[in-house]
């Protein structure tokens, strides 16, 4: 029902920064809270961050607290993930996801983007 397209991934050095974007299109009115989930090579998908419908409430995985910041611009139908102080263990494919609830959720997403690769070198 909604299309999500991530961008902004790439290769970055440790301690560097990167900002991911997720453009939404289609039936966006059915999706409220949104989030980012990542999957590192050989590992299961891991929740990263989530944001409420209007952007005032956020949740973060312990591993990224203080380093990552999730935000959204509803006028532009775009979700962002600002990643600072990147570490090699942050290397993963990052997926943008949409949820039908109003509050930021760590699971239960039902619409996903294709993902964007983030590689952090040491």
Architecture overview:
The structure is a single chain. This protein is an all-beta fold and 122 residues long. It has no helices and eleven strands. Strand 5 and strand 6 (58-60) form a beta hairpin. The radius of gyration is 13 Å and the shape is globular. The mean pLDDT is 95.
Question: Which spans have pLDDT < 50 for at least 5 consecutive residues?
Answer: none
Number of strands: 11
Give the helix proportion (percent range): under 10%
What is the succession of H and E elements?
EEEEEEEEEEE
Whole-number average pLDDT?
A: 95
Specify Rg, calculated over alpha carbons.
13 Å
Which percent range describes the beta-strand content? over 45%
Q: How does the major sheet shape up?
A: 7 strands, mixed
What is the CA-CA span between the terminal residues?
A: 39 Å
Structural class: mainly beta
Task: Please state the overall shape, judged from the principal axes of the Cα atoms.
Answer: globular
Number of continuous helical runs: 0
